[in-house]
Each structure stands twice: as structure tokens, then as C-alpha cells.
Amino acid sequence: MILGQLSRGGAGVRVQRYLLPGSWQGVRGAAVAAGEPLVAGEPREPAVKTQIPGPETKRQYEALSKISPCQSVSVFVDYDKSIGNYQVDVDGNVLLDAFTQISSLPLGYSHPDLISAATSQQNVRTFINRPSLGVFPGADWTQRLKDSLMPLAPPGHTSLTTMACGACSNENAFKAIYIWYRSKERGSKDPTPEELQSAMVNQKPGCTDYALLGFNGSFHGRTMAPLALTHSKAIHKVDIPTLDFPMAPFPMYKYPLEDNVAENEKEDERCLARVEEIMHEYKNKGRPVVGVVIEPIQAEGGDNHGSNEFFQQLQAITKRNGAALLIDEVQTGGGPTGKFWCYEHFNLPESPDILTFSKKMLTGGFFCKEDFRVAQGYRIFNTWMGDPGKVILLQEVLNVIKRDNLLQNTVVSGDILYKGIRELENRFPNVINSTRGKDRGTFIAFNGKDAATRDAIIANMKQKGVQLGGCGDAAVRLRPALIFQPHHANILLDRLEQVLKEF
Ligand SMILES: Cc1ncc(COP(=O)(O)O)c(C=O)c1O
């Protein structure tokens, strides 16, 4: 099926570079194939009016900085005007958003189905009466979880805990691991009186010396325990006391993968050997590694991928050593890799023991196997433990994903993006390299020649109307919403070509 020209506008004519595969299906498949937006009312293309950041963002930045630290602010957004894949800033610049609030908008801006759910009279009391879910859940809470999150649980995961954000999902999932391990050791789920007394004064045996193993380049959040396992940016960690948790190397592959098979296999072996070594070292020190914590794709650290074999072997190592395997799907979960959970790509013999989520899932939380369910109340707990309003929205998101076949949309758009960027990499090898994310939906990244080049690519793309993100030392990452369609991919590629030509 040839799609032909897509649209005309100020920036000229864009041509679909790649064709949709024959397998394209879905209720709205025909409209999508014709380049119709899934979200009605979306602009046809970006429109940049000012230098970004523009004068109104600068004025608002001045005002905000007087009352709140805001060095990380990029632009102030006009959320009334932003729609679908397009973010509109307070200066009226219309950007195709391929970063979507650090990968956390499943359906882009102001999706009509979410607006209906949020404004329905039926839901309004859930939105305004935020409960302390661990103590006072609403009458419909169990059914809501059964209808929304539970069908997404990895096979063998019988327990779900909701939380507010990514870091607190990890923080609490780590606690579930310590509690699981200690219960196994003592042969009972109930702590002894001596353990309870010593825990009150931060002493053993009540407080344990257990270690969790993390990886170089990882990011798990900015609260204390996730930060101890985070090794991507020094500025996140400096000045903060930490836990003595070991760090193993994460595979750093050479790209293209197909040209570097033997070398990358060796890289897997090197990293896995070090994991096993650390486990033995810590066991000998009397500080067992009770859990291994890993992202399926290291995102903040630079979009570093591990092979399926790497993850399979890693799981085997955790099993051999009696440790839990926690997969942090905070950034990868909810469909951007073309499967609902990224770990599903790995063909693991069994599910990881714990899976944490947030971002595109709208609520944070974790799924775990039955053994990791904590026996006493208030141990894994906080005041809100999530928010039923977010679960109402998530239910709607899941309906739309299914109705509009958005995982398939992500696979198709991702394929166009990946092939297009590889082609650009071949044409501009001195500017970009290491395109990665093949068969991982739109979860795609490439490197600039160096950090300065990467930063310039992102800034110039923004000025041409496309918002991208940076990660790691020199990577540009794409994190569009699940409604990012083939015609959006072609706009992105078109602007990227223009930017690369200017180097
Ligand atoms: C893999 C991963 N884990 C945890 C977090 C922390 O999530 P939050 O920022 O919601 O605390 C992030 C955030 O980017 C992440 O990418």
C-alpha cells in the first residue's frame, strides 16, 4: 500500500518513506493508513513562532524562580491548547512531542476519551475524595483493580500493590524483597521479639545487612534506596548518604548489532560473570545479595539494551543464588516497546519475581509472585498508596489501546522510525551513530558524535518543531505516546534530516 504524500504546509511536502506492512489491522486501520490522526483536532504539523524558550516562557520562569527552584524547566505549556501528539507552549509554539512528559503520556494530550472519563458525573466523587487506600478503599476499588491492572499482571504474579510514583514503587518493592528473604531465613513470616526490639534502635538482627545488586548506568529513582542503585548521573547522587549496594557492569554493545555479534556476546559474558562474582563476594562477607534490580532497557542512563540471552542468563544466576529478580518497567512499561511489558521480549523461562511500573501506567505500583506478598499490614504502606482517579483514567487508556490497536501502531511507527534513523545514520555517520531499538516499538535512541552534538541536535529539532529527549552521555531518545502514527514518524524523520544536513 503506497501512502503517497501526506500533507502540505509551511515546511513543504513530506513523503511517506516507508510502507505500512500488510499485517496492519485495527478498527481505525484505514484511517491511520490514510494519515488521519487518531486524535481528532490534532494540528497537521508543527509550527514554531519564536526562539524556544520564547519570551513568555522566560517571563514565567523569572516569576516561578522567585518562589521555587526551577532550573530543570524547559518551557511553560499551554495545556488547554495541547492536543494529541502536539504540545503547545505559552508562546504559541506547536511542537510534535516525541518525549511526552518524560515518557509518561500514554495517549498524548487531552485525549477525548480521557476527558469524558474525567468529566463524567459518575466519576467525579472518585476524583475529589482521594482515599487512604490501604485503610479506606472505596466499594468499587477491588473491581477496578480486577478490570484494569490485574489482567496485565505477569504470569504467576498474584499480588498487586499500587503506589504514587516510580521511585516509591521501587522503594517499596525493595522492601518486599528484604521481607521475603528474611522470612525464608527465619522460617516464619513473623519477626521475633528480639528482632522487633533491635529494629527500633537500628541494630541487628532486626535491621538486616542485605544487599541489592544494581548496574552501572541504571536509574531507579531519587529516594534513598533507589538512589543507592542508581548509577547514571553523579548530580543525582552527590551529597546524599547511601547504602553499600554493589554495582555490576551493564552490557555496552557495539552497533549495528548484526555486525558485532561475537563482540557483543563476549560483553554479555563479561557482565554476567561479574554479577556471579559479586554474589559470591557478598555472600562470603555475610551480606547476601537478596535481589537483582534491573531495567529491561536502561533509559536515563543512555538507552542501553541487553540481549534476550543476557536477561535469560541473569535470571538463571538469581535463581542459582536464591536472589529475587526485580524488573523496573517504570519507563518501558505500558506499551512503548510494542509489547505491554518490555520483559516479554526476552522469552524468560518464567516471569521476573517483581515488576515495578509508573509513568504511562498513570499510577505507580508493583506486581509480585505470591511469596513476596507481605503478611502484616502497614509494612508496605503510605497514606495514599496510589489514587483511584488515576486508575479510572488507566482503565480508559487500556480501552483505547485495545480499541485503536495502539501496540500495533507503536510497532509500525517504530519500524518506520528505526529504519529512517538507520538510513540517516548511514548518510551522516560523522554526526550520529549507534541507532538502537530495532523491534522495540518507538523506544528508539541514537547517539550524537559527542555530548555537544547531541545537545545541538535536540535544540535544533525543537526549533524545527519536534521535541526529543536526551539521556546518558550523548544519546537522543524518542519517547512518543502510543498514538504516534506513521505520519508523525515521517515528520520527525523529515526534520531530523534537515537538522543533520546543517552540521
Ligand atoms: C526506570 C525508571 N525507574 C524509576 C524511575 C523513577 O520514577 P519517578 O520519577 O516517577 O520517581 C524512572 C524515572 O525516570 C525510571 O526511568
From TrEMBL:
One of its GO terms (cellular component) is mitochondrion. InterPro entries: 4NH2But_aminotransferase_euk, Aminotrans_3, PyrdxlP-dep_Trfase, PyrdxlP-dep_Trfase_major, PyrdxlP-dep_Trfase_small. CDD domains: OAT_like. Its EC number is 2.6.1.19, 2.6.1.22. It comes from the Eukaryota. The keyword Transferase applies. Belongs to the class-III pyridoxal-phosphate-dependent aminotransferase family. This is (S)-3-amino-2-methylpropionate transaminase.
